[in-house]
What does this fold into?
Amino acid sequence: MNHLIQFILLISLLMPLWSVETGLKNTSDSETELAIGIEENLGGMIPLNLSFKDESGNDVRLSDYMDKPVILTLVYYRCPGICSPLLEGLTKAIDKLRIKSGQDYKLITLSFDPTETPELARQKKANYLNTMKNPPGDKDWLWLSGDAESIKQVTDATGFRYKREGTDFIHSATLIAVSPSGKISRYLYGISFLPFDIQLALAEAQAERTGPTIAKLLRFCFSYDPGAKKYVMQVTRIIGTVMLLILAGFLLFLVYGGPKRTDVDQDVKG
It folds into this structure.
């Protein structure tokens, strides 16, 4: 009976702090994360009947290109912020892959800005390929642009939420592994990637499997600062979580780790 009372007391003491932490999360992100970020859609399908312009100005239907698993990146080519670090991180990881582009996988980079042109896509593609030691074949990495409706169908299918701010966009950074049938297999967050993680994501996509998100903690610990155009630490969330864990551990120690009353009574009687 005493243990039950102590357990109820423990829960009642933890609930206020949990409410504070939840409140911090909800109030700080209720507006931003609904409009900006990634709403994962693992197992969802990207419409493969869509057509875009490649960097040479040719029409490309996704179903004609995606005969291999694909790493998809959603960026805009004029981006002054996170797109460049994302693509740099991807090129560095690709350079170290043991599997071959064209044979084992392909890549698609799609601009979500409908005003951008194949010419700009061609310039950006050349810039990044020139930095690589082992670049993919020219046909193994498409840099696409398209109309607003086609872009929207892809961003809606992938759960990629972004917002225009002036001439720029506020958005997050992720790689999306897509199977040959168009199934969304895995999301890889951030701007730095391990070759092993990319190869695993591609293997799962090839097998038409979905995989859990490895680096989802990034969404909890970091948020995108549109002013500084970088990820910043969410200190209030981390402090709240740490305090919650410390308090829980301390109360559990008091309830279960302290001296037993029967032991104390026996010592007194002895």
